[in-house]
Specification:
Elements lengths: L7 E7 L24 E2 L2 E13 L2 E12 L5 E8 L5 E9 L2 E4 L5 H13 L5 E6 L5 E8 L4 E11 L2 E2 L2 E9 L6 E9 L4 E8 L4 H7 E6 L2 E6 L3 H4 L12 E9 L5 E6 L2 E6 L9 E8 L7 H16 L5 E7 L3 E3 L5 E2 L2 H12 L9 H17 L8 E8 L10 H12 L5 E6 L5 H9 L5 E4 L5 H12 L2 E9 L5 E2 L5 E6 L4 E7 L7 E8 L4 E8 L3 E6 L2 E6 L4 E5 L2 E6 L3 E6 L4 E7 L11 E6 L22 E11 L2 E8 L2 E12 L8 E8 L21
Subcellular location: Secreted
Family: Belongs to the ITIH family.
Pfam families: ITI_HC_C, VIT, VWA
Amino acid sequence: MASAWWPCLILALLSGLAASGFPRSPSRPLGKRSLPEGVVNGIEVYSTKISCKVTSRFAHNVVTTRAVNRADTAKEVSFDVELPKTAFITNFTLTIDGVTYPGNVKEKEVAKKQYEKAVSQGKTAGLVKASGRKLEKFTVSVNVAAGSKVTFELTYEELLKRHKGKYEMYLKVQPKQLVKHFEIEADIFEPQGISTLDAEASFITNDLLGSALTKSFSGRKGRVSFKPSMDQQRSCPTCTDSLLNGDFIITYDVNRESPANVQIVNGYFVHFFAPQGLPVVPKNVVFVIDVSGSMHGRKMEQTKDALLKILEDVKEDDYLNFILFSGDVTTWKDTLVQATPENIEEARTFVKNIDDQGMTNINDGLLRGISMLNKAREEHSVPERSTSIVIMLTDGDPNVGESRPEKIQENVRNAIGGKFPLYNLGFGNNLNYNFLESMALENHGLARRIYEDSDANLQLQGFYEEVANPLLTDVEVEYPENAIQDLTQSAYQHFYDGSEIVVAGRLLDEDMNNFKADVKGHGAINDLTFTEEVTPEKITLWSGAAQSTFSWLDTVTVTQDGLSVTINRKKNMVVSFGDGVTFVVVLHQVWKKHPVHQDFLGFYVVDSHRMSAQTHGLLGQFFHPFDFKVSDIHPGSDPTKPDATMVVKDHRLTVTRGSQKDYRKDASVGTKVACWFVHNNGQGLIDGVHSDYIVPNLF
């Protein structure tokens, strides 16, 4: 898939005459440079760092660049950061010679006048510019006084989405000069555990990447660090310009013991749902393609190349058709046809012969395709357990027939009637993308911009791959009534293979012990329901003032300073000290409808003989052998349980024969063990009395 589709971060620093188009200097041999290493037009960018902290798919990113003006006069520096459309800025600061100035939003004209006045006086000032309704581009121009240092820091956050089985963080790096300290650092924490983690860069060879990149993951934590030296940044061994100009991509996925995972923090929950291994639901696809005159040349050839590749991937159970619109509307077939080998070959011939002509009648093209899908469903000419999709591609605005965007949206919305999604692909920049996006979103689809580049055909193919494999349709996520509020979207027309459904909400009762979440959907063969039992009971590990919180739904191992803690999902927790004693805390789960008994924890010592002789406490005092003798066995009040006399610690006690369960080997059922029960709360057996061992709380 083309890089431009993914959430991206572009960090560009242009020094000197950047605002007036200062050109990037060509490669220069080291021997010919007249400025110190890493200085361009008097500006030295000595540090650039992108720090990413990801927790449960939520990324917190901080971009920090530090520069100093080594010239004798004021110089202007421009910073450009392009943010993901779904990201939001949470903080921006400029630090000038140690004094921090937080970002301040003002009207554009007022801000521009203040900036120009400061620049004319040779002072350091910043100007924030935004382009695009969703703040796609963030620009700061700073006039740096002679000898001054400036630090630019931007913080933004985003929820990472899963595509093709992986979460992806996309960073497009363009420092435009050698940077003494350049670093990309990502720390990932996923409660489900990380299953894969990788990183790659398009601008550097694998050999150089391997020496500058470190990546690792274990259990729930993963880390990626990219720290190229100045020599590794050079575009050639004797050059002073940087090769850091391209894509840096981090991908990962999580362990999935079950289709769903629910995490609870401070009375809020987030529900992740991504089943695997389900059969693909057959789909009925109508491609509505703009063949107007503006598509002439390269765009049309790339569109045809993409459609031919897509036809190779269409499954035989699918049904399809092509609608072409310019000033008029034409179709390949009058109705949807099955994707048999013969029909696919005929479709290839049709696509190869597509030609461009005329104007742009989006309204009639879409309505023809929608009508065809509706008719196929009404006449039962497509499989009952199939799903319908409209994919429309255009490079311009409607200019013939119904050309009012709001009226086209109304027509399309009424024709679809919420029955299937519409996906709009906008080719290039000469179109009303907001119109395409709005129309797609109100019909349960989405819009994508196809960039006019050499890989436009790959962008088209990549989008189709995302929607090519629906596993469920009409997906609904249900929670107990009167238990959840502030719920995000919980109904989806499709779940596609490799993606993920995310629902968040707030628990009405923060002390709620458990609740059930059901995910229902129509599969290729039958209707399916996935149930996740949610429990917010916490397991908190403290290290000084720092704490880590887990639940019995986790599988994780934490090791620190000789202490190892392993949580086995819904089973037990094992605590080990170095090579010494091991404790096991077993989660005993009882019948959910039992009128009296509830789930409980059992505390067991595996290697008690390794404990110090000075160990004490209610359990510790019995870790090492002590003398006792049982005699005078005789019938007790219960004929099945004889009594006896036990002599221990200079006390004569009456004890009763019985049995207890040992859960160390079988945590669910346990093993019966014969034992003697001591009466009166262990009086005479334990040191002191039982109340000596009761504390008001654990911490």
